[in-house]
UniProtKB/TrEMBL annotation:
Sequence ranges assigned to domain ABC transporter in this UniProt record: 2-233
GO MF term set: ATP binding; ATP hydrolysis activity
Residues forming coiled coils: none
Protein name per Swiss-Prot or TrEMBL: ABC transporter ATP-binding protein
Keyword Cell membrane recorded: no
Source domain of life: Bacteria
């Protein structure tokens, strides 16, 4: 579960990047987080993950306060950033073992999880190659596997489908659904509105640091009294505001 209460962040003391944001993402849900460039998505994700601190407000991950108890809060989630270009000099397997070490995953558990993840993402053949030799999509899959190797309850995925081939994209969406259906939480940022419409249980749209809408796609259509696609409604909400 993720709870954000009255979260605000300004840069340079001027315009708020995020203003008085309130969100609750319960267990058992894929939650989509959408917004145009510069809307406050990245700032919000950085505050949820503890990369930056809010100027005010509260960030709670599975009842752990990010400001008061950051180490325990960070143990609750796995975070896929929007760039996979990390630790390029390591081999894939070295990186996965490094991530397992960071989260105190036992030798037996990590081996089973690495094998399962590498098999699902078709990466078994490449684990002994250096990450810098990987394609963008292979790097993305390696980062995802590293995030999931400690089996976190909360997944925070920032544009995770970027660069993935269709099969791997399908696999990740399938895993997101399995994770949510097992009673855990998936926070999913994407710019592909068609994917959000099909995959997410609920979505929030942020623009200029303010949540414009939060709910199901059906509730969005009812709210705006339209049968249009999410893409059309999103554009009408965020363009020229």
């Amino acid at each position: 579960m993720i709870n954000l209460t009255n979260v605000t962040k300004s840069y340079g003391g001027n315009v708020a990047a995020v203003s008085n944001l309130n969100l609750t993402i319960p267990r058992g849900e894929i939650f989509g987080f959408l917004g145009p460039n510069g809307a406050g998505k990245t700032t919000t994700i950085k505050m949820i993950t503890g990369i930056i601190a809010p100027d005010q407000g509260e960030v709670i991950i599975n009842d752990k306060d990010m400001l008061k108890n950051p180490l325990e809060a960070k143990k609750q989630f796995g975070y896929v950033p929007d760039s996979p270009d990390l630790f390029l000099r390591l081999k894939g397997l070295e990186y996965l073992n490094f991530m397992a070490d960071m989260y105190d995953v036992s030798k037996s558990e990590r081996q089973a999880r690495i094998n399962t993840l590498a098999s699902r993402f078709d990466m078994m053949h490449a684990l002994n190659d250096p990450i810098q030799s990987y394609s963008h999509g292979m790097r993305q899959k390696t980062v995802i596997m590293g995030v999931l190797v400690h089996n976190p309850e909360v997944w925070i995925l920032d544009e995770p489908l970027t660069g993935l081939d269709p099969k791997s994209s399908y696999t990740l969406k399938e895993m997101m659904r399995e994770h949510a259906d097992s009673g855990k939480t998936v926070f999913f940022s994407t710019h592909v509105l068609e994917v959000a419409e099909k995959v997410c249980d609920r979505i929030a749209i942020i623009n200029k640091g303010v949540i414009q809408f939060c709910g199901t796609f059906k509730e969005m259509q009812e709210h705006f009294k339209t049968n249009e696609s999410m893409e059309k409604i999103f554009l009408e909400m965020t363009v020229n505001e």
